[in-house]
Design goal:
The complex is a heterodimer of chains A (262) and B (251). Chain A is 89% helix and 0% strand. Chain A is built from 9 helices and no strands. Chain A has helices at residues 2-34, 38-41, 43-82, 89-127, 130-136, 141-180, 184-194, 197-225, 230-260. Chain A is globular, with a radius of gyration of 22 Å. Chain A starts with a helix and ends with a helix. Chain B is an alpha/beta fold and 251 residues long. Chain B has 10 helices and 8 strands. Chain B has helices at 25-32, 55-62, 80-91, 96-109, 125-137, 155-172, 183-189, 207-211, 216-223, 238-247; strands at 14-18, 44-45, 48-49, 65-68, 143-147, 175-180, 192-197, 200-205. In chain B, a hairpin with a 2-residue loop joins strand 7 and strand 8. Chain B is globular, with a radius of gyration of 20 Å. Classes of the chains: A mainly alpha (262), B alpha/beta (251). At the A-B interface, helix 5 of A face helix 2 and helix 3 of B.
Chain lengths: 262, 251
């Protein structure tokens, strides 16, 4: 009986903690939004972050995009060849990348590369009393440090997803046309005729934008809430990767259901 | 918890707030900067009760004070010059030439004019403390709070830092509160010394007065004696007793 009571108490405690955490997270998001005026007052702070965060991830995104494109070219040809429609390879590669793989894989890589870096940076600034120093200098650390990073990540993410998709399509073309020998005209014309700018490309951009908000927000929140110790920063960095990745996959399901359902 | 502590600092004065580790000195500093809100009593800065001040009022008060953090709290992504220039860039719209002049002047005051271009990773702990000092006074504040400015410094850096605190206080005419447990350096520069222990104010007065005090706590602290009102051994608590019992397998 005691064990059941203890288990129920623990369950209640964990549930309450999760709900409280969700409340803090939501409030943190709205605080970032309400203090975003600095984006227009000092746009250079944001452009620096776009450059910084984008540079962090560009190489890994481009290389991953290329290999994903290679694999799509091979797998796509293998499947389409069964039905004698291998000339639709360009369409398959483009749709897979713009609608799904581009935003999702980029967001996962972004979480691992830029997200962890943001969490560690904010956590270490907290541990080194840099955020407290700003506060007593009458400089709001949320406005000065977090807001530019948040918008930097949100802007960088769709750009990186576009790079991923573009390099992936080139990878698919290299395998399909260069290696397998599909007609290059058929590869590009099928893609041009069937990929819809709004239904496919724009929805992919919206997805990457939403993932950018989710991943950057989680990374900054974890850094902001991190215990100011080496162990605390390490744990926060791990939580960033886990929470961001699960959020991206969950959000992807929701967005896909909303965007591509009839 | 701190109680029954009244501390007043006047313009041009250097006040040393002393006490052992964990006596609540840094808590007092955080209360003075508005980072902590007092549960009882009042904290007034420039005549303004911090408990009644909103965020914008606290920010305007903070612009009139400078704080030197224990570890310097320098921004590691900025170089020495940009660290000192940071408060100026955030609060004043100064022309670049004037900003350069002001920052170099403050760096000159701490003897680091020629280190302006260096990264934070390239300077020593003592130099970092001096850069932080230059940053704390770059807005020419009316009140400067120093949190353990002598901790971890070699004797030369310690002496230089102490003289700098006195010199900057005299030059800028600002009130200075030095939170420290270093007796020799603080007695050499302070006008008034407040001794905090066990959550209350144990003694206060000029360094000369405190030096002749017969109070056993003052004597123990100033002379670093092992025996006295402050016990060397941490007191046993019920939590410790139950933990020990668990360790010994009695429960």
């Amino acid at each position: 009986m005691n064990q059941i009571s203890h288990a129920l108490t623990q369950l209640g405690k964990q549930t309450r903690l999760k709900i409280t955490g969700l409340g803090f997270f939501t409030r943190f998001f709205f605080t970032l939004l309400t203090r975003s005026g600095i984006v227009f007052q000092r746009p250079r702070l944001v452009s620096q972050q776009v450059h910084f965060i984008g540079n962090y991830s560009l190489l890994i995104i481009a290389v991953s995009g290329l290999f994903v494109g290679f694999v799509l070219g091979l797998q796509g040809y293998y499947t389409l060849n069964r039905y004698g429609s291998e000339e639709a390879l360009g369409l398959l590669v483009a749709l897979s990348l713009t609608r799904e793989l581009g935003p999702v894989v980029t967001a996962l890589l972004f979480a691992g590369r830029a997200g962890t870096s943001l969490t560690a940076e904010i956590g270490l600034m907290k541990a080194g009393e840099q955020l407290a120093a700003m506060e007593v200098m009458a400089v709001d650390p949320i406005r000065r440090v977090l807001v530019p990073r948040f918008w930097g990540g949100v802007i960088a993410m769709p750009i990186l997803a576009a790079v991923f998709s573009m390099v992936g399509i080139l990878g698919g073309w290299a395998v399909g046309v260069g290696l397998i020998g599909i007609d290059t005209g058929a590869f590009w014309s099928q893609m041009q005729a069937s990929v819809d700018v709004w239904k496919d490309v724009a929805n992919g951009v919206i997805k990457s934008f939403v993932f950018g908000i989710a991943v950057t927000l989680i990374a900054l929140y974890e850094g902001w809430q991190a215990q100011p110790t080496p162990e605390g920063v390490a744990r926060a960095t791990t939580r960033t990767v886990v929470t961001s990745s699960l959020s991206v996959l969950g959000l992807d399901f929701l967005l896909t259901a909303l965007m591509f359902s009839n | 918890m701190l109680r029954d502590i009244t501390l007043e600092v006047l313009r041009g004065q250097v006040v040393a707030m002393m006490g052992g580790s964990g006596s609540g000195k840094t808590t007092l500093l955080r209360a003075a900067t508005g980072q902590l809100v007092a549960q009882a009593g009042t904290v007034e800065v420039f005549g303004q009760n911090l408990a009644c001040a909103d965020r914008s009022k606290i920010e305007s008060l903070r612009q009139r004070m400078g704080v030197l953090f224990q570890q310097g709290a320098l921004f590691t992504d900025l170089n020495v010059f940009e660290n000192v220039a940071f408060p100026l860039r955030e609060h004043l719209h100064m022309k670049p030439a004037k900003l350069l002049e002001r920052v170099l002047d403050k760096l000159n005051a701490v003897g680091l004019r020629a280190a302006a271009h260096l990264k934070i990773s390239q300077i020593s702990g003592g130099m970092a403390r001096r850069v932080a000092l230059a940053r704390a006074v770059v807005l020419e504040p009316e009140l400067v709070l120093y949190d353990e400015p002598f901790a971890g410094l070699d004797p030369i850096s310690m002496g230089i830092t102490a003289r700098l605190i006195r010199h900057l206080s005299d030059k800028l005419g600002c009130a200075s509160v030095v939170i420290t447990h270093d007796v020799a350096e603080s007695f050499a520069i302070a006008d008034q010394v407040y001794l905090v222990g066990q959550g209350v104010l144990k003694a206060h007065g000029s360094p000369a007065t405190l030096g002749t005090s017969a109070d056993p706590y003052v004597q123990q602290f100033l002379h670093g004696q092992a025996d006295g009102p402050v016990a060397f051994d941490y007191p046993e608590t019920p939590a410790f007793t139950s933990w020990l019992a668990l360790q010994r397998g009695l429960r």
